[in-house]
Amino acid sequence: MRAVQRGFTLVEVLVALGIVAITLMAGMQATGALTRNAQRQSDLLLAQMCAENELIRIRLARQMPGVGDSSISCQQAGLALNVALAVRPTPNPNFLRIDAQVFKDADPVLRLSTVLGRY
Fold this sequence. Notes:
With about 120 residues, the chain is α+β, with helices and mostly antiparallel strands. About 45% of the residues lie in helices and about 35% in strands. It has one helix at about 10-60, and strands at about 70-75, 80-90, 95-105, 105-115. A 4-stranded antiparallel sheet has the order 1-2-3-4, with helices on one face. It is rod-shaped, with a radius of gyration of 28 Å. It starts with 9 loop residues before the first helix and ends with a strand.
């Protein structure tokens, strides 16, 4: 009578290791996507604060700004952002359109627009 051998074959072990490796890679990709999304959300929040601060600063000046482009640096939570303001005339001379676009390095993050009227 022959002794019965117990255990897994090499092929079965390799298949199990392959399945575990694929599962771990999928988990790593999901974790990376969540991290990138969280960073993007943080950048958007800080960019919105910079853009809104500049638009509020213009409103509080109680003067119509000059038509043209300007650029302001903004520091929020240790992140250096750049706010590009574009002031444009509208068909009604009592109003100006103001666009505030926020950049992180050279990449656009957010754009806000508003209309400002004479006081």
